[in-house]
Write a structure and sequence with these properties.
By secondary structure, the protein is mainly α. The protein contains five helices and two strands, in the order E-E-H-H-H-H-H.
C-alpha cells in the first residue's frame, strides 16, 4: 500500500488543525511499475523465445528470397529467349504459350520487387536484433503488402 502523507494546512488555526491527507502520485506509479516489471520477468522466456523464432523466420525468409530471385532470374532469361520462338510456331498450343507468358510475368514481378523485399526483410531482422520497436512497426504494413503480393502470384487452388 502506498504511503499516505500527512501535511498541515498552510494557515492552521487551533480550531481547524486537522491535517490534510493525500497519496503521492509517485507511490501509485511505483506500484504499477513494479507490477509491470514482475509481468515482464514472469514472461521473459516467452518474450525471448518469440524474438528468437522471429529472427530465425526472417533469416529463413531472407534465404528463400535470395533463392527465389536467383531462379526467377534464370527462368526469366530462358523465357525471354524462348517466348519469341514459341509465339512464332503455330504448332505450340495457345494455352502453352499463355502459360509461358504468365510464367514470364511472374518471374519479372519477383525480379522487380527484389530490392524492396530484400530491404524490408533486412530492416525487420535488424529491428528484431536491436529491439527497435519503431523499426518493426514501420515495416508491419510492408510485410502485409509483401504477403499480399506473394499470395497474388500463387496459383489458385
Amino acid at each position: 500500500m502506498p504511503p499516505t502523507i500527512i501535511r498541515p494546512t498552510a494557515k492552521a488555526s487551533p480550531a481547524s488543525s486537522k491535517p490534510v491527507t493525500y497519496t503521492r502520485f509517485s507511490s501509485k506509479l511505483t506500484g504499477s511499475l513494479d507490477q509491470i516489471s514482475k509481468m515482464v520477468e514472469d514472461n521473459a522466456k516467452m518474450i525471448d523465445s518469440i524474438q528468437e523464432v522471429a529472427l530465425e523466420l526472417t533469416t529463413s525468409i531472407g534465404a528463400l528470397h535470395t533463392l527465389t530471385v536467383k531462379y526467377a532470374g534464370i527462368a526469366n532469361a530462358i523465357l525471354d529467349t524462348l517466348l519469341p520462338i514459341v509465339k512464332s510456331l503455330p504448332l505450340i498450343p495457345k494455352n502453352v504459350t499463355a502459360m509461358l507468358v504468365n510464367l514470364e510475368s511472374i518471374t519479372q514481378k519477383i525480379i522487380d520487387n527484389q530490392a524492396s523485399t530484400g530491404r524490408t526483410i533486412s530492416d525487420v531482422n535488424t529491428g528484431l536484433r536491436t529491439g527497435d520497436v519503431a523499426k518493426l512497426q514501420a515495416h508491419a504494413g510492408q510485410l502485409q503488402g509483401l504477403t499480399k503480393s506473394l499470395t497474388a502470384i500463387l496459383p489458385n487452388k
